[in-house]
Amino acid sequence: AAAPEPSGLVGRLFGRATAQPEEPRRALDDAMLEELEDMLVQADLGVETALRVTANIAEGRMGRRVSSTELKELLAAEIARIMAPVARPLPIYPKKPQVVLVVGVNGAGKTTTIGKLASQFRAAGKSVVIAAGDTFRAAAVEQLQVWGQRAGVPVMVAPQGSDPASLAYDAMVRAEAEGADLLMIDTAGRLQNRQDLMEELAKIVRVIRKKDPEAPHNTLLVLDATTGQNALSQVETFRKLADISGLVMTKLDGTARGGVLVALADRFGLPIHAIGVGEQIDDLDAFDAEEFARALVG
Ligand code: GDP
Fold it and tell me: pTM (2 decimals)?
Protein backbone atom coordinates (compact mmCIF):
# COMPACT_ATOMS: atom_id res chain seq x y z
CA ALA A 1 0.00 0.00 0.00
CA ALA A 2 1.14 3.53 -0.75
CA ALA A 3 2.50 5.41 2.21
CA PRO A 4 0.43 8.47 3.17
CA GLU A 5 1.39 11.82 1.70
CA PRO A 6 3.52 13.79 4.12
CA SER A 7 1.56 16.49 5.85
CA GLY A 8 2.01 19.27 8.35
CA LEU A 9 4.69 21.91 8.42
CA VAL A 10 7.56 19.54 8.88
CA GLY A 11 6.37 16.40 7.08
CA ARG A 12 6.83 18.02 3.72
CA LEU A 13 10.53 18.48 4.35
CA PHE A 14 11.01 14.73 4.45
CA GLY A 15 9.05 13.52 1.46
CA ARG A 16 6.94 10.40 1.31
CA ALA A 17 7.21 8.10 4.30
CA THR A 18 8.48 4.65 3.52
CA ALA A 19 7.39 1.29 4.75
CA GLN A 20 10.72 0.89 6.52
CA PRO A 21 10.51 0.63 10.28
CA GLU A 22 13.03 3.48 10.58
CA GLU A 23 11.79 7.00 9.83
CA PRO A 24 13.85 8.74 7.14
CA ARG A 25 16.40 11.18 8.51
CA ARG A 26 17.88 14.36 7.13
CA ALA A 27 20.92 16.24 8.23
CA LEU A 28 20.24 19.63 9.78
CA ASP A 29 22.28 21.57 7.23
CA ASP A 30 21.95 24.92 5.52
CA ALA A 31 19.65 23.57 2.79
CA MET A 32 17.33 21.96 5.31
CA LEU A 33 17.22 25.08 7.48
CA GLU A 34 16.46 27.23 4.47
CA GLU A 35 13.52 25.02 3.56
CA LEU A 36 12.29 25.11 7.13
CA GLU A 37 12.58 28.89 7.15
CA ASP A 38 10.57 29.20 3.91
CA MET A 39 7.92 26.96 5.33
CA LEU A 40 7.64 29.04 8.48
CA VAL A 41 7.36 32.22 6.43
CA GLN A 42 4.60 30.60 4.37
CA ALA A 43 2.90 29.66 7.62
CA ASP A 44 2.69 33.40 8.47
CA LEU A 45 5.44 33.59 11.09
CA GLY A 46 7.05 36.40 9.13
CA VAL A 47 10.69 36.51 8.05
CA GLU A 48 12.14 37.83 11.30
CA THR A 49 10.48 35.24 13.53
CA ALA A 50 11.07 32.41 11.04
CA LEU A 51 14.79 33.24 11.07
CA ARG A 52 14.93 33.32 14.84
CA VAL A 53 13.05 30.05 15.25
CA THR A 54 15.24 28.33 12.68
CA ALA A 55 18.42 29.67 14.26
CA ASN A 56 17.35 28.42 17.69
CA ILE A 57 16.61 24.98 16.29
CA ALA A 58 19.99 24.90 14.53
CA GLU A 59 21.88 26.01 17.64
CA GLY A 60 24.18 23.20 18.70
CA ARG A 61 22.56 20.75 16.29
CA MET A 62 24.16 21.54 12.91
CA GLY A 63 24.88 18.38 10.95
CA ARG A 64 22.86 16.17 13.27
CA ARG A 65 20.54 13.76 11.43
CA VAL A 66 16.96 14.18 12.54
CA SER A 67 13.72 12.44 11.72
CA SER A 68 10.50 14.24 10.87
CA THR A 69 9.13 13.41 14.31
CA GLU A 70 12.22 14.84 16.03
CA LEU A 71 12.11 18.01 13.99
CA LYS A 72 8.40 18.41 14.74
CA GLU A 73 9.13 18.10 18.43
CA LEU A 74 11.97 20.63 18.25
CA LEU A 75 9.79 23.08 16.33
CA ALA A 76 6.78 22.65 18.59
CA ALA A 77 8.96 23.14 21.67
CA GLU A 78 10.52 26.27 20.21
CA ILE A 79 7.12 27.74 19.31
CA ALA A 80 5.66 26.82 22.69
CA ARG A 81 8.63 28.56 24.34
CA ILE A 82 7.85 31.77 22.44
CA MET A 83 4.12 31.51 23.16
CA ALA A 84 4.15 30.47 26.82
CA PRO A 85 4.75 33.98 28.22
CA VAL A 86 1.83 35.47 26.26
CA ALA A 87 -0.71 32.78 27.16
CA ARG A 88 -2.34 34.73 29.97
CA PRO A 89 -6.05 35.06 30.77
CA LEU A 90 -7.59 38.48 31.19
CA PRO A 91 -6.34 39.80 34.54
CA ILE A 92 -9.19 40.33 36.97
CA TYR A 93 -9.08 43.48 39.08
CA PRO A 94 -10.58 43.59 42.54
CA LYS A 95 -11.96 47.00 41.71
CA LYS A 96 -15.58 47.41 40.65
CA PRO A 97 -16.34 47.97 37.90
CA GLN A 98 -13.37 46.60 36.01
CA VAL A 99 -13.40 48.61 32.80
CA VAL A 100 -12.44 46.82 29.59
CA LEU A 101 -12.06 48.94 26.49
CA VAL A 102 -12.32 46.88 23.29
CA VAL A 103 -10.68 48.14 20.10
CA GLY A 104 -9.99 46.76 16.63
CA VAL A 105 -10.86 47.27 12.99
CA ASN A 106 -14.40 46.63 11.80
CA GLY A 107 -14.95 42.98 11.03
CA ALA A 108 -12.20 41.74 13.36
CA GLY A 109 -14.79 40.30 15.72
CA LYS A 110 -15.11 42.92 18.46
CA THR A 111 -18.88 42.62 18.86
CA THR A 112 -18.80 38.84 18.86
CA THR A 113 -15.91 38.74 21.32
CA ILE A 114 -17.64 41.15 23.71
CA GLY A 115 -20.73 38.91 23.60
CA LYS A 116 -18.69 35.79 24.27
CA LEU A 117 -16.72 37.41 27.12
CA ALA A 118 -19.92 38.78 28.67
CA SER A 119 -21.39 35.29 28.60
CA GLN A 120 -18.29 33.78 30.25
CA PHE A 121 -18.25 36.39 33.00
CA ARG A 122 -21.97 35.89 33.59
CA ALA A 123 -21.40 32.15 33.85
CA ALA A 124 -18.72 32.90 36.45
CA GLY A 125 -21.30 34.81 38.47
CA LYS A 126 -20.14 38.31 37.55
CA SER A 127 -22.45 41.16 36.65
CA VAL A 128 -21.62 42.86 33.39
CA VAL A 129 -22.62 46.04 31.58
CA ILE A 130 -21.83 46.65 27.91
CA ALA A 131 -21.58 50.08 26.28
CA ALA A 132 -22.14 50.21 22.52
CA GLY A 133 -19.45 52.80 21.85
CA ASP A 134 -19.47 52.53 18.07
CA THR A 135 -22.31 55.02 17.90
CA PHE A 136 -21.90 55.67 14.18
CA ARG A 137 -22.67 52.17 12.93
CA ALA A 138 -26.32 51.40 13.63
CA ALA A 139 -25.76 47.79 12.56
CA ALA A 140 -22.95 47.38 15.07
CA VAL A 141 -25.17 48.65 17.88
CA GLU A 142 -27.97 46.26 16.90
CA GLN A 143 -25.53 43.35 16.71
CA LEU A 144 -24.25 44.17 20.17
CA GLN A 145 -27.80 44.28 21.52
CA VAL A 146 -28.42 40.81 20.10
CA TRP A 147 -25.26 39.55 21.82
CA GLY A 148 -26.27 41.28 25.04
CA GLN A 149 -29.59 39.45 24.97
CA ARG A 150 -27.88 36.13 24.34
CA ALA A 151 -25.50 36.70 27.23
CA GLY A 152 -28.18 38.15 29.50
CA VAL A 153 -26.30 41.41 29.90
CA PRO A 154 -27.62 44.98 29.54
CA VAL A 155 -26.29 46.96 26.59
CA MET A 156 -26.22 50.73 26.89
CA VAL A 157 -26.75 52.55 23.63
CA ALA A 158 -26.82 56.19 22.57
CA PRO A 159 -28.48 57.97 19.64
CA GLN A 160 -26.71 57.38 16.33
CA GLY A 161 -23.78 59.69 15.83
CA SER A 162 -23.71 60.90 19.43
CA ASP A 163 -20.49 61.23 21.43
CA PRO A 164 -19.15 57.79 22.45
CA ALA A 165 -17.32 59.38 25.39
CA SER A 166 -20.56 60.64 26.85
CA LEU A 167 -22.06 57.16 26.51
CA ALA A 168 -18.95 55.69 28.18
CA TYR A 169 -19.34 58.12 31.07
CA ASP A 170 -23.03 57.25 31.49
CA ALA A 171 -22.07 53.58 31.40
CA MET A 172 -19.51 54.17 34.18
CA VAL A 173 -22.16 55.88 36.29
CA ARG A 174 -24.59 53.01 35.74
CA ALA A 175 -22.03 50.28 36.32
CA GLU A 176 -20.96 51.95 39.58
CA ALA A 177 -24.53 52.52 40.71
CA GLU A 178 -25.42 48.89 40.04
CA GLY A 179 -22.21 47.57 41.57
CA ALA A 180 -21.40 45.80 38.30
CA ASP A 181 -18.20 43.76 38.26
CA LEU A 182 -17.35 44.54 34.69
CA LEU A 183 -17.96 47.23 32.14
CA MET A 184 -17.04 46.44 28.55
CA ILE A 185 -16.90 49.35 26.14
CA ASP A 186 -17.09 48.68 22.40
CA THR A 187 -15.43 51.27 20.18
CA ALA A 188 -15.45 52.32 16.55
CA GLY A 189 -13.09 50.49 14.20
CA ARG A 190 -12.85 52.80 11.25
CA LEU A 191 -9.21 53.38 10.48
CA GLN A 192 -9.97 55.60 7.48
CA ASN A 193 -9.56 58.61 9.72
CA ARG A 194 -6.98 57.71 12.31
CA GLN A 195 -6.74 61.16 13.81
CA ASP A 196 -10.48 61.09 14.44
CA LEU A 197 -10.37 57.64 15.98
CA MET A 198 -7.39 58.53 18.15
CA GLU A 199 -9.20 61.56 19.52
CA GLU A 200 -12.35 59.54 20.04
CA LEU A 201 -10.50 56.85 22.01
CA ALA A 202 -8.51 59.41 23.99
CA LYS A 203 -11.70 61.20 24.94
CA ILE A 204 -13.37 57.99 26.11
CA VAL A 205 -10.34 57.29 28.31
CA ARG A 206 -10.34 60.85 29.63
CA VAL A 207 -13.98 60.83 30.72
CA ILE A 208 -13.96 57.38 32.31
CA ARG A 209 -10.90 58.45 34.31
CA LYS A 210 -13.03 61.14 35.88
CA LYS A 211 -14.85 58.29 37.58
CA ASP A 212 -11.83 56.02 38.05
CA PRO A 213 -8.31 57.34 37.42
CA GLU A 214 -7.07 53.78 36.78
CA ALA A 215 -9.63 52.97 34.10
CA PRO A 216 -9.59 51.39 31.61
CA HIS A 217 -8.05 48.46 33.43
CA ASN A 218 -7.66 46.54 30.19
CA THR A 219 -7.55 47.69 26.60
CA LEU A 220 -8.14 44.69 24.39
CA LEU A 221 -7.20 44.68 20.75
CA VAL A 222 -9.27 42.18 18.78
CA LEU A 223 -7.45 40.79 15.73
CA ASP A 224 -8.65 38.51 12.95
CA ALA A 225 -6.07 35.70 12.72
CA THR A 226 -6.97 35.05 9.08
CA THR A 227 -5.54 38.41 8.05
CA GLY A 228 -2.03 37.01 8.45
CA GLN A 229 0.77 39.54 8.50
CA ASN A 230 -1.80 42.34 8.39
CA ALA A 231 -2.42 41.67 12.07
CA LEU A 232 1.10 42.93 12.81
CA SER A 233 0.46 46.29 11.21
CA GLN A 234 -2.84 46.54 13.07
CA VAL A 235 -0.99 46.18 16.36
CA GLU A 236 1.46 48.90 15.26
CA THR A 237 -1.42 51.18 14.36
CA PHE A 238 -3.55 50.60 17.44
CA ARG A 239 -0.61 50.93 19.80
CA LYS A 240 -0.37 54.51 18.60
CA LEU A 241 -4.08 55.06 19.22
CA ALA A 242 -4.49 53.39 22.59
CA ASP A 243 -2.54 51.76 25.38
CA ILE A 244 -3.11 48.15 24.31
CA SER A 245 -2.82 45.74 27.24
CA GLY A 246 -3.71 42.48 25.52
CA LEU A 247 -5.03 40.68 22.47
CA VAL A 248 -7.91 38.45 21.52
CA MET A 249 -7.29 36.50 18.31
CA THR A 250 -10.44 35.56 16.42
CA LYS A 251 -11.32 33.10 13.64
CA LEU A 252 -8.79 30.46 14.62
CA ASP A 253 -11.40 27.84 13.73
CA GLY A 254 -10.99 28.35 10.00
CA THR A 255 -8.25 27.25 7.65
CA ALA A 256 -5.81 29.77 9.11
CA ARG A 257 -3.53 27.92 11.46
CA GLY A 258 -2.51 31.06 13.21
CA GLY A 259 1.20 31.29 12.44
CA VAL A 260 0.88 35.04 12.79
CA LEU A 261 0.35 34.58 16.53
CA VAL A 262 3.96 33.48 16.81
CA ALA A 263 5.10 36.60 14.97
CA LEU A 264 2.92 38.74 17.24
CA ALA A 265 4.23 37.13 20.40
CA ASP A 266 7.81 37.36 19.19
CA ARG A 267 7.56 41.00 18.15
CA PHE A 268 5.25 42.54 20.75
CA GLY A 269 4.97 40.12 23.66
CA LEU A 270 1.41 41.25 24.32
CA PRO A 271 -0.66 38.71 26.26
CA ILE A 272 -3.15 36.68 24.23
CA HIS A 273 -6.13 36.57 26.58
CA ALA A 274 -8.43 34.41 24.49
CA ILE A 275 -8.97 32.95 21.04
CA GLY A 276 -12.17 32.92 18.99
CA VAL A 277 -12.91 29.51 17.52
CA GLY A 278 -16.33 30.02 15.96
CA GLU A 279 -19.37 32.25 15.69
CA GLN A 280 -21.33 30.84 18.62
CA ILE A 281 -21.42 32.27 22.13
CA ASP A 282 -19.29 29.47 23.61
CA ASP A 283 -16.65 29.66 20.91
CA LEU A 284 -14.06 31.52 22.96
CA ASP A 285 -11.19 29.55 24.45
CA ALA A 286 -8.25 30.30 26.69
CA PHE A 287 -5.01 30.37 24.74
CA ASP A 288 -2.85 27.32 25.43
CA ALA A 289 0.75 27.65 24.19
CA GLU A 290 1.55 23.92 24.00
CA GLU A 291 -1.68 22.96 22.32
CA PHE A 292 -1.30 25.81 19.84
CA ALA A 293 2.30 24.85 19.03
CA ARG A 294 1.36 21.23 18.43
CA ALA A 295 -1.58 22.16 16.19
CA LEU A 296 0.53 24.63 14.21
CA VAL A 297 3.32 22.15 13.59
CA GLY A 298 0.77 19.47 12.66
P1 GDP B 1 -16.66 43.73 14.57
O2 GDP B 1 -16.99 44.54 13.34
O3 GDP B 1 -15.22 43.83 14.93
O4 GDP B 1 -17.55 44.00 15.71
O5 GDP B 1 -16.84 42.20 14.13
P6 GDP B 1 -18.02 41.18 14.41
O7 GDP B 1 -18.03 40.76 15.83
O8 GDP B 1 -19.29 41.72 13.86
O9 GDP B 1 -17.54 39.94 13.57
C10 GDP B 1 -17.37 39.98 12.15
C11 GDP B 1 -17.67 38.60 11.58
O12 GDP B 1 -16.72 37.67 12.04
C13 GDP B 1 -19.03 38.05 11.99
O14 GDP B 1 -19.61 37.40 10.88
C15 GDP B 1 -18.69 37.05 13.10
O16 GDP B 1 -19.62 36.01 13.17
C17 GDP B 1 -17.35 36.55 12.64
N18 GDP B 1 -16.52 36.06 13.75
C19 GDP B 1 -16.14 36.71 14.87
N20 GDP B 1 -15.34 35.93 15.64
C21 GDP B 1 -15.21 34.74 14.99
C22 GDP B 1 -14.50 33.51 15.25
O23 GDP B 1 -13.79 33.34 16.25
N24 GDP B 1 -14.63 32.53 14.32
C25 GDP B 1 -15.38 32.69 13.19
N26 GDP B 1 -15.43 31.68 12.33
N27 GDP B 1 -16.03 33.82 12.91
C28 GDP B 1 -15.96 34.84 13.79
Answer: 0.93
Q: What is the tens place of the pLDDT at every residue in 158-210?
A: 999 999 999 999 999 999 999 999 999 999 998 888 889 999 999 999 999 99
What's the ipTM?
0.99
Residue by residue, what is the 3-state secondary structure of 94-140? Answer: CCCCEEEEEECCCCCCHHHHHHHHHHHHHHCCCCEEEECCCCCCHHH
Q: Pick the residue whose CA is nearest to atom 9 on ligand 1.
A: 109
Is 104 known as a binding-site position?
yes
User: In terms of C-beta density within 10 A (0-12 exposed, 13-18 middle, 19 or more buried), how is residue 268 classed?
Assistant: middle
Using alpha carbons, list the distances in angstroms from residue 224 to 219, 230, 265, 292, 293.
16, 9, 15, 16, 19
**Is 6 a pocket residue for ligand 1 (Cβ < 6 Å)?**
no
pLDDT tens figures, 111-157? 999 999 999 999 999 999 999 999 999 999 999 999 999 999 999 99
Whether 206 contacts 213, CB under 8 Å: no
CA distances from 162 to 131, 135, 166, 170, 270 (A): 13, 6, 8, 13, 32
Task: Measure Cα distances from 59 to 29, 45, 53, 78, 285 in Å.
Answer: 11, 19, 10, 12, 34
> Residue 157 to residues 140, 167, 221, 298: CA-CA distances in angstroms?
11, 7, 21, 44
Residue 235 and residue 223: Cα distance in Å, rounded?
8
Q: Which amino acid residue places its CA nearest to atom 19 of ligand 1?
A: 109
Q: Whose CA is nearest to atom 16 of ligand 1?
A: 279
Q: Find out whether the beta carbon of 234 lies less than 6 Å from any atom of ligand 1.
A: no
Taking the CA of residue 105 as reference, the ligand 1 atom at the shortest distance is 3
